[in-house]
Amino acid sequence: MKIILDCFGGDNAPEEIVKGALLALKADEKLTLVLSGDEGKLLPLLNGAEAFLPRIEIMNAPEIISNEEIPTAAVRNKRESSLVKGLQRLSDDAETDGFVSAGSTGAVLAGAFMFVGRIKNVSRPALAPVLPTVNGGNVVLVDCGANVDCRPVQLGQFAMMGAAYAEAAGIKNPAVGLLNNGAEAGKGNELTKEAYEVLAGLNINFAGNIEGRDLISGAVQVVVSDGFAGNIALKTAEGIANSIFALIKQGVSAGGLRAKIGAALLLPTLKGLKKKLDYNENGGACLLGLKKVVIKSHGASKASSICASILQARDIAAGGLIKKIEQGLSQF
Predict the structure, then answer these.
(1) What is the maximum span of the chain, computed from C-alpha positions, in angstroms?
(2) How many H helices and E strands in the chain?
(3) Which end of the chain is more exposed for a tag (fewer CB within 10 A), N or C?
């Protein structure tokens, strides 16, 4: 497996990105990485990593695309950026299997659309993070922000791609739910009502509508949504999890000695719970519908999340996801 890594995308680039790359190389002795970025800044970060150098290629890309730039303009104008050169290499080099970036979401979407291209019958690629569920499993949320305005047929394609993604991860016959404001079939706006009929007619295990409170309940393995509602659901879940731990911390501080002793006893459990609820521990959001694997990591990713995203890209490529999506979308 050869994965390309955008080393200058994200809040903690390039230090944490390179650390994550080394963690991934340590975890998989057959993995090769192409580090895309300013060679002069990357080389010093590899001091002491001589054992991994035979499996590292540096692709010099001195320009950087920031979050403040207009994505499409930046992708067109900054052809020497770590993001653009990485995506171009992914498209042109048959030996590369995937691409990982924690950079600008808009730029990753625009660049992937422009250089990598869509699978046949895909109207729009969709971002699909894997979230942990309370029953110990996972759920794929598709779309979480790539497409804020959608048509019913596009939600049908999201459902097919999400189901293929879950199956590639080892889940047989995954249950697919449509995110809505009620569980009844007649609930929702025009989009979800029409999308319900589309999903019901597909060759998938459609479980009907699910409400936001069931997003991580484990009731389904795939949740389908337009990018507007999906992004709100994702950010709300993330915010609530962070707020709960902040409230626990406040309560311990105000509760005196007894509360602090109790918190000390529960600390391993609380840390484990926080890690479990952090969806970044599973890697990034896969951009479904492209001809090759593209993973968008969280902008604030640290080394462990970058490592998880790299290994995620490896597993998705090895699992034959692209072929599964092509087969599923033949229905359209």
Answers:
(1) 63
(2) 11, 12
(3) C
pLDDT tens by residue, 228-267: 999 999 988 888 888 888 888 888 888 888 888 887 877 7
CA distance 10 to 4: 15
CB contact at 8 A, 301 and 280:
yes
- DSSP state string for 180-245: -S-SSTT-S-HHHHHHHHHHHTSSSEEEEEE-GGGTTSSS-SEEE--HHHHHHHHHHHHHHHHHHH
Which residue, among 179, 148, 140, has the nearest Cα to 316 in the 3D structure?
Answer: 140
Give tens-digit pLDDT for 299-315. Answer: 989 999 999 999 999 99
SS3 3: strand
**Predicted confidence (pLDDT) per residue in 35-47, tens digit:** 999 999 999 999 9
Place of tokens 């999201």: 158
Residues sharing a CB contact under 8 Å with residue 91, sequence separation 6 or more, in sequence order:
115, 116, 117, 291, 292
Domains of the chain: 1-122+289-332 (3.40.718.10), 124-282 (3.40.718.10)
Number of residues in the chain: 332
Sheet holding 126-128, edge to edge: 56-60, 32-37, 2-6, 98-101, 293-296, 285-288, 126-128
Tell me the average pLDDT across 130-143: 89
Is there a contact between 81 and 64 (Cβ–Cβ < 8 Å)? yes
Q: Which token pair is 62?
A: 């001195």
Whether the predicted pLDDT of 75 surpasses 70: yes
- Tell me what pLDDT residue 111 has: 95
- The whole-angstrom separation of Cα 9 and Cα 229 is 26
Determine how many CB atoms are found less than 10 A away from the CB of residue 177. 26
Two tokens, residue 135: 């029953």
- Measured in degrees and rounded to the nearest 5, phi and psi for residue 318 equal -65, -30
